[in-house]
Specification:
The complex is a heterodimer of chains A (about 260) and B (about 240).
Chain A: H1 3-25, E1 27-33, E2 36-37, E3 41-43, E4 49-50, H2 52-63, E5 66-72, H3 78-83, E6 89-95, H4 98-101, E7 105-106, E8 115-120, E9 137-141, H5 145-153, E10 158-162, H6 165-174, E11 179-183, H7 184-190, E12 199-206, H8 209-212, E13 216-220, H9 225-240, H10 243-251
Parallel strand pairs in A: 1-5, 1-6, 9-10, 9-11
Antiparallel strand pairs in A: 2-3, 3-4, 6-13, 7-13, 8-11, 8-12
Helix pairs in contact in A: 2-9, 2-10
Chain B: H1 3-45, H2 48-63, H3 66-79, H4 81-86, H5 90-94, H6 96-121, H7 125-133, H8 138-168, H9 180-191, H10 195-222, H11 227-235
Helix pairs in contact in B: 1-2, 1-6, 1-8, 1-9, 1-10, 2-6, 3-6, 6-8, 7-8, 8-10, 9-10
Classes of the chains: A alpha/beta (about 260), B mainly alpha (about 240).
């Protein structure tokens, strides 16, 4: 082989190696979210998935040196989708509960959770017990902790379960349901919109750990301990250097990490 | 959890869903079945002016997905609450079951009308003329000549439509009416066990099989004046 040919071969080989290594450097991950849960995750008018969850998720990706692609998945199938490897972690305002821990592992909470009752303004519902709510029409999103909550706490109520929170809100505004139970922050956010002006939060926040768990975490597959550790570390980092607060303040008036 | 355990712990919900599916299908098919023959009569023998609204209605219903119709009626009616209250209709539209039934009836009526139209147009003109010749009134001709023949012709297609309606009822859970499919998804989101979908498929299959069996029996009865002759032909 001539020297020239050898040289060409070497250059070509090294270019290949360099190309491979730069591809390997940015690990690519897929971030699963629901996309129907404003302000945490929602689809913008241009089709992009945005929201608090998504921004935190993408920031964490940056910190762990990964290129992340955002994938939207309906809530009912969001955990099976993770297990089936349709994405690598879920950041979708998911409460850390014992039931879910059987299927997936969670990072440390990235914000604290509370649920709340919501009624139309001027509603006569003041008391939140099974007796007081007998035959009252209560709405919630199906497959959520709030749906479990109303099924267990108010079994005699007329329970309506909707595919997404948006539809619960739609029927709350139209007066088809007398009350709903939902996550505190999205409902607080919704009550400031035109549609949400119909209604107000009522009663004490629901913080029973049996239902809301330890907070809201990022779900990963049970074998992905390494990813979970890296996400935890990145979460501490963005908490410490103020990036978390910057994102937080874009969406909320209180610090959702401490709920204060 | 194995497939048996899942059914043992969740059968009340599945039963509840099955009853809801049956209720939606039977009520929907019956009401549609009571309206569609009359629309079909107009559609095949009425004047052009009488036919036009039916044609528009049928092409609208057949040209749009039933899911879109369900959303339109359910969430759409919510937007017109003050107007509906004024008309005294809000109580009807407030209940998701009523909205679901309304959509299924509207949908099935359109399809059944077209099927019945085919049946009515398939009736031998000679028989109608014969009936007129012996002095039957219009109602009697309808009752004794046109409808018996039309149903005999339309019967297999009607069973198809009712089976499709039953499967379409799986959409009702998007408006909070929990049929078999809604309950299945609900159980799945608690257990993450796919075997519940298998149970759902088996329940649907069982309902369809029973229905087809019964429907076929009626079909034989409707054709009883033809069957023996066919058999005799087969023998000779």
């Amino acid at each position: 082989m001539s020297l020239k040919a050898k040289l060409v071969q070497t250059i070509a080989a090294s270019a290949l190696v360099m190309g491979m290594s730069s591809a390997a450097m940015a690990e690519s991950l897929r971030l699963g979210t629901e996309g129907a849960y404003p302000p945490f995750n929602y689809i913008e008018s241009n089709g992009e998935i945005a929201g608090f969850d998504v921004e935190i998720g993408l920031e964490l990706c940056k910190r762990i040196g990964a290129d992340c692609e955002v994938v939207a998945q309906d809530w009912d199938g969001i955990i099976p989708g993770l297990i089936a490897n349709k994405y690598d972690f879920i950041i979708a305002s998911m409460f850390i509960t014992e039931e879910r821990k059987k299927q997936v592992d969670f990072t440390d909470p990235y914000y604290l959770a509370a649920m709340t009752h919501m009624v139309p303004k001027g509603s006569e519902i003041k008391e939140f017990t099974n007796d007081a709510l007998k035959d009252v029409i209560i709405g919630a999103q199906s497959g959520t902790t709030q749906a479990d909550y109303i099924e267990q706490m108010y079994p005699d109520a007329d329970i309506r379960l909707y595919p997404t929170q948006d539809e619960v809100n739609l029927d709350m505004a139209s007066g088809r349901i007398d009350m709903q139970v939902g996550d505190m922050l999205p409902l607080l956010d919704w009550s400031t919109t035109d549609d949400g002006a119909c209604c107000e939060l009522a009663g004490e926040p629901i913080t029973d750990p049996a239902f809301v768990g330890e907070g809201v975490g990022i779900a990963v597959r049970q074998e992905d301990d390494d990813l979970r550790e890296r996400l935890n570390k990145a979460l501490q980092e963005i908490r410490a250097d103020g990036t978390y607060k910057k994102i937080n303040d874009k969406y909320f008036t209180i610090d959702v990490y401490t709920m204060k | 959890m194995n497939p048996i355990e899942i059914m043992v712990s969740y059968w009340p919900r599945m039963l509840d869903g099955t009853l809801m599916t049956l209720k939606l299908t039977i009520l929907g098919a019956l009401i549609a079945g009571a309206i569609s023959p009359w629309l079909a009569l107009v559609r095949s023998h009425g004047s052009l002016i009488a036919q036009t609204p039916i044609r528009i209605y049928v092409s609208f219903v057949r040209g749009t997905p039933i899911l879109a119709q369900l959303f339109l009626v359910f969430y759409g009616s919510g937007q017109f609450r003050p107007e509906l209250m004024e008309l005294g209709l809000w109580n009807f539209f407030r209940d998701p079951f009523n909205c679901a039934i309304l959509v299924f009836v509207l949908n099935s009526t359109a399809y059944q009308t077209e099927i019945m139209r085919g049946g009515i147009q398939g009736v031998n003109l000679g028989e109608i003329e014969a009936a007129k010749a012996i002095g039957m009134t219009r109602m009697t001709i309808l009752r004794r000549v046109i409808f018996p023949h039309a149903y005999r012709i339309a019967w297999p297609a009607l069973s198809n439509e009712i089976i499709l309606l039953m499967k379409a009822s799986a959409l009702a859970s998007v408006v909070t009416v929990f049929d078999i499919m809604g309950r299945t998804r609900q159980i799945f989101s608690k257990t993450f066990d796919f075997s519940i979908y298998l149970w759902a498929a088996l329940i649907y299959l069982a309902i369809t099989s029973l229905f087809v069996f019964g429907w076929h029996r009626i079909e034989r009865r409707l054709n009883r004046h033809i069957l023996p002759r066919n058999n005799a032909n087969a023998v000779s």
